[in-house]
Design goal:
By secondary structure, this protein is mainly β. The chain contains 6 helices and 29 strands.
Length: about 625
């Protein structure tokens, strides 16, 4: 037999008019008596809570707070576990709900718990209905004490506050922090901003920010202590704190991050010392990091069934921040061995310069190549997430195609001079597990038809990825890749190891490695001058550390521009299973080709990889 049980809380009706009264009543409503007949609920102590639901949540309040309630329980491997029912747990959950609603602009909210009971099984289904009441919004908004030398901030434009917005505690505190940071980045090191309530009338409350800017200060000098003497000039160059400039908390923070990014310092602490009113000394307290490191690893994934890496590096081998790295990678289809010297802050404080020598050996189904390469690379980092690289290299390339076409570039091609540039913008919320934002990469390579270059060409590639957060832990992602090449001078075709290829875990999951696109006379992948790839993927949580995904991949590689046709596009649908690990997700993909499947290609394909495909 199931019997509905209802119980209402008791509240006092009060019309607040002053800020103190407003907060006292909000606190009172948050902890007022929870159940008028609480003894009725005590009869069900120890019963199993089979379901728990909160209804009536205002649309302008995020609903995720329910997971923090005791009776909501938590998700185990196969089901949701909830504690046995206790009146005190219900009372605490109701208090948490009302306190949360008060902080979100609904201080007069009421909660009405209802239970459906099964006496024979000693089970109950709980439903908590919310009646939010009239919300409190911001009426008048003003700043008191803002310094004249700093531009008056537009809090509405910044997205924090505006008149008529719901009175939410978190938003107000965020606005106070934002205003404080504006002042601290404009020379006022000790600035403080505190919110204050004014009058309250008919659901509107006046909000003021009391500003204590303090003394305007400039940085007169910069001192580095604690590290090796040869690294002091490097630290000063990387910090880029010019004496005579106004104090900026953000610039001090970025200077500390830049110092850590050099990997030369194990401990970084940047602060200030008062020399006299309005004049500061920036002090960087540093400790040398461990300079030598060995790195080794071995992995497997579809694009290279076995790939191992071994590397030794010394970040300050030649002192003054000049380091060296020696290492190699060895895999099923490739082997690389090289050494490089690198140094920091040569052209700009956030730049890295390197010069390296490398030998690369590729063993593919349609060709093999041996390349001896010397390259000079300059990397610029305008901020922590973006990168611009420019470089030049001289290579001696020997490519042997097993079944060459008549217009293939000849074997033993000889020297090749290349110049290239890469731009990368990262606007995602997390570089490892992105759920929102985008990243873009543009690459351009030119081997000019001058001097000793025997196989000149030009090549460009665009990669773009966009992520949308649909609901909690549900992410929709999309990617586009477009690339094109053109042979220059008398070169008949691109070198085989400079062409575009597709198929595999990171490109088109409906095909095995490099199997999408033109084939040679023996039916092996020969690559092409043009590529277009597109994909969409929906990622969602499953159980425990497992996540799932549904995806659609499409694309094609064309030998020449005249071959490009949308009729050639291949497409595959599939699903993926991810296991979250500290190294990133371990992923198993299943794909089925549904558009333009080639006769010799399997209809179904399994791939395995570490990390997300894009």
């Amino acid at each position: 037999m199931k019997t509905p049980v209802k119980c209402k809380e008791t509240t006092k009706k009060t019309q607040p008019s002053l800020p103190v009264v407003f907060f006292v009543l909000a606190l009172f409503w948050s902890f007022s008596p929870i159940l008028a007949t609480a003894e009725n609920w005590d009869h069900y102590r120890g019963w199993e809570v089979t379901s728990f639901e909160v209804t009536g949540i205002p649309e302008d309040i995020p609903s995720g707070f329910q997971v923090k309630l005791a009776l909501h329980g938590y998700r185990s491997l196969f089901k949701i576990k909830r504690p046995p029912f206790k009146t005190i747990l219900l009372a605490e959950d109701l208090a948490r709900i009302r306190l949360h609603l008060a902080q979100q602009g609904y201080p007069q909210a009421k909660t009405f718990p209802t239970a459906e009971l099964d006496f024979e099984a000693r089970q109950m289904s709980l439903i908590i209905e919310i009646q939010p009441g009239k919300p409190v919004v911001i009426g008048q908004l003003a700043l008191d004490g803002w310094p004249e030398r700093v531009a008056y901030p537009d809090t509405g434009e910044s997205g924090f506050l505006h008149e008529g917005r719901l009175f939410q505690d978190e938003v107000i505190q965020t606005a106070a922090k934002y205003l404080t940071s504006v002042l601290q980045d404009s020379g006022f090191e000790s600035a403080r901003v505190s919110p204050r309530l004014g009058s309250y009338f008919d659901g509107e409350v006046s909000l003021y920010f009391d500003v204590d800017a303090g003394t305007y200060s400039i940085i007169d000098s910069v001192k580095v202590v604690g590290c090796s003497d040869d690294l002091v000039p490097v630290a000063l160059r990387v910090m880029d704190l010019d004496p005579g400039k106004e104090y900026s908390a953000e610039k001090m923070r970025l200077a500390a991050l830049d110092l850590r990014g050099t990997q030369l310092f194990g401990h970084v602490e940047i602060g200030t010392e008062n020399m006299e009113p309005g004049h500061l000394m920036a002090v960087a307290k540093l400790e040398d990091a461990r300079m030598r490191a060995w790195r080794a690893g071995i992995g497997t994934w579809s694009d290279n069934p076995i790939l191992g890496r071994l590397e030794w590096s010394h970040n300050n081998l030649f002192s003054h921040g000049i380091g060296s790295r020696v290492g190699g990678t060895f895999g099923t289809h490739e082997a690389r061995l090289g050494a490089e010297v690198f140094w920091l802050g040569w052209l700009t404080p956030r730049s890295r310069t390197s010069f390296g020598l490398r030998v690369e050996n590729e063993r593919e189904d349609s060709y093999k190549s041996l390349e001896k390469r010397a390259e000079l690379l300059q990397a610029f980092r305008p901020n922590l997430r973006d990168m611009w690289k420019i470089g030049t290299a001289i290579s001696f390339v020997n490519v042997e195609t097993y079944t060459p076409d008549p217009d293939e570039a000849p074997d033993a091609q000889g020297p090749l001079w290349e110049l290239w540039s890469d731009w990368k913008w990262d606007r995602t919320d997390d570089p490892i597990n992105p759920t929102l934002g985008y990243n873009i990469k543009i690459s351009l390579t030119v081997a000019p038809p001058i001097g000793f270059t025997e196989s000149p060409y030009v090549q460009a590639q665009f990669d773009g990825v966009r992520f949308y957060s649909l609901q909690k832990n549900i992410v929709l992602g999309g990617r586009i890749r477009a690339g094109g090449s053109h042979s220059l001078g008398d070169s008949g075709d691109l070198l085989a190891n400079r062409r575009f290829y597709a198929g595999g875990f990171n490109t088109m999951r409906g095909y095995t490695r490099r199997q999408l696109g033109p084939m040679d006379n023996a039916g092996e992948p020969r690559g092409g001058k043009f590529v277009a790839l597109a994909g969409v993927e929906l990622r969602f949580p499953l159980l425990w550390l497992f996540n799932g995904a549904l995806f659609f991949d499409s694309g094609q590689v064309w030998r020449e521009a005249s071959d490009i046709s949308t009729d050639d596009y291949s497409g595959a649908v599939g699903m993926a299973l991810d296991l979250s690990t500290p190294l990133g997700p371990l992923r198993l993909n299943y794909a089925a080709n549904i558009v333009n499947r080639q006769a010799d290609e399997s209809r179904e394909m399994w791939t395995f990889g570490i990390g997300y495909p894009w």
